[in-house]
Amino acid sequence: MKNRNKISLEKPEIDYSSWFIELGALTLFTRKVLNQFFKPPFEHGELIKQGYYIGYKTLPLISITGFIMGLVLTIQIRPILVDFGATSLLPGLIAVAFVREVGPVITGLLCSGKISSGIAAEIGAMKVSEQIDAMEVSGTKPLGFVVATRVLATTLLVPLLVIVGDAFSFLGSIVALNMDENVTFRAFMNSAFDTIHFSDLIPATIKTIFFGFFIGLIGSFKGYQASQSTEAVGLAANSAVITASLTIFVIDLLAVLVTNFIVSN
């Protein structure tokens, strides 16, 4: 009886091999998808359709979030700058913060939650209903028609969504500033764009392209790897959100390190 009541304090073993297996599978999947970008037939109609669903239907979420983030960040920062008599620096500070970091990362995380999970659930459901198998039998390439179009759509549209989110964050910041002082739209934008340089725009744009690519890729991979059960669809969507979000943070870290290295040299 005493042995039965003992609590085991041993640490559970972590199966690192499964991580490497999944990483290898993702690498092979990535190569196959990239090959589909250059192999005819090119599914332009499906690409436009996915662009509508991914971009247009995500636009309200990105716009509202960007506006609120700009509003809140301005309200939080302004009292600190007032103490130092540096409120004139606020538009430039908001612009640099959102263009360099806040806008891309927040938009990327929102797209991970909405787009990547949606793609994983959709493709997972197609596997459960055997639509993927039917495409292969009929001669349609699922990787080209289903996966490549979604990955290309996210790669093209996530950078545009980031730009929209940044624009609405500027608008939210203007509204917050006008709660306490009179700042015109033109004055705010002139001060903001005087602070932003191409060295801020180029790295931010490049990393958002990678954000979009991996958001679509990971969602497609998780859905494509899901087993043929309804429970697996939910697990694939959940796993896609977690993996895509972590990938965005890793890409952002690498982008900052590379940018700082280039600037310092």
Largest sheet: none
Number of strands: 0
* Shape assignment: elongated
| Amount of beta strand | under 5%
Query: Spans with pLDDT under 50 lasting ≥5 residues?
Result: none
Mean pLDDT: 85
Number of helices: 10
What percent of the residues sit in helical stretches (DSSP H or I)?
Answer: over 70%
> Which structural class should the secondary elements be placed in?
mainly alpha
State the end-to-end CA separation. 68 Å
What is the CA-based Rg, rounded? 23 Å
The helix-strand sequence is HHHHHHHHHH
Overview of this structure, please?
With 265 residues, this protein is an all-alpha fold. Helix content is 83%, strand content 0%. The chain is elongated, with a radius of gyration of 23 Å. It starts with a helix and ends with a helix.
Care to give the gist of this entry?
The protein is mainly alpha-helical. Helices cover 83% and strands 0% of the residues. It has helices at residues 2-5, 16-36, 44-56, 59-83, 90-128, 131-138, 142-177, 185-195, 198-225, 230-264.
Strand-helix topology:
Elements lengths: L1 H4 L10 H21 L7 H13 L2 H25 L6 H39 L2 H8 L3 H36 L7 H11 L2 H28 L4 H35 L1
Helix pairs in contact: 2-7, 3-7, 4-5, 4-7, 5-7, 5-8, 5-9, 5-10, 7-9, 9-10
Attribute tags:
mainly alpha; 265 residues; elongated
